[in-house]
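Page 47, continued from p. 46.
Same chain as before, 373 aa.
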Amino acid sequence: MRDTMGIIYTGDSNISLQELTLFRSVAALPFGGRYRVIDFILSNMVNSGIHHVGIITQNNYHSLMDHLDSGKQWDLDRKRGGLFILPPYVSHDNRGWYRGEVDAFFSNMSFIRRSSYKYVVISGSSMICNLTYDSALEFHKENNADITVIYKEEKKATKEELSRHTLLQTDDNNRILDIEVMPSNPKSDKVSMEMYIMEKQLFQFLVEECVARGLHEFSKDILIKKMDKLKILAYPYDGYLAKIDSIQSYYHHNMELFNTENFYELFHRSGLIYTKVKDEVPAKYGIDAKAENSLVADGCIIEGQVENCILFRGVKIAEGAIVKNSIIMQDTEIQDKAYIENVILDKEVIIRKGKRLIGQANYPVVIRKRAVI
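Result:
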């Protein structure tokens, strides 16, 4: 895919992650013990042979920039192409707040114009999966499509879950007949993965036309309004997909990693998932420590009991502490005789001696970054 560039938009706004996104964007949200959400999206592009990627940021992007650095971990620190982080454009008539994806693309149009690539792959920042775009691009070319939308058929999803997505209706030739954006009464189970393929020149034209008419949203103002004029096709993805759009979905998809099949699908299906490397010592277990069915990152010190948990780097579990069914982020400390169950602890949280925090599997307790309980 040497003739293709990538654009990742990280300004998702229709997402309710409460305390977890107070200090970071969704793209920078920790996931799976040592990764961030952006790692999966960026690794997918790199594994597809895309080596020119622009990441459009919106708000709370300092954590994201620190994690990505120069792009070395993804082999994107290059003289030609590579990784480009595109902060909000601020001027006397633009305060740096995008009113939608189209507005964000238009504000970074100079970056897009300067690129000499024929095709562009566009992705949002809340979908986690492991795929390569090779076959989708081939499908796009063979069918002479104007726009190709990648989707996942979610047959087991509930009505409530489907209503949080953009849904597609297609004919037998994979042409999109209708699109619903977060419908209250879903008519389809084909979920748009917010990943699109098209020629760069067409992309530029559509964005500029949209802005000229005061329109700002990609799905509503381009895809829906151009269905009759453009050949917009849907390409199916059949692997594991996690959409991080709520506290419940974040917790649920992390817990699903204990399923061996899901773990393989997400981390090995189409290529490796790369992340920022930190040279820390292996996890240390005390004499009386007990760890069962858990993902434990390097640098952790476990002297208590851990069961069905995901521990990020540098977590400390003191002797006598019990932690069950929880997500514990980097450098958090749980002191002796504390009891934690169905809880999400953000980075650098301290749980004092003897404290008890108990949530529900369908409604976990969330503790914000650097809190002391």
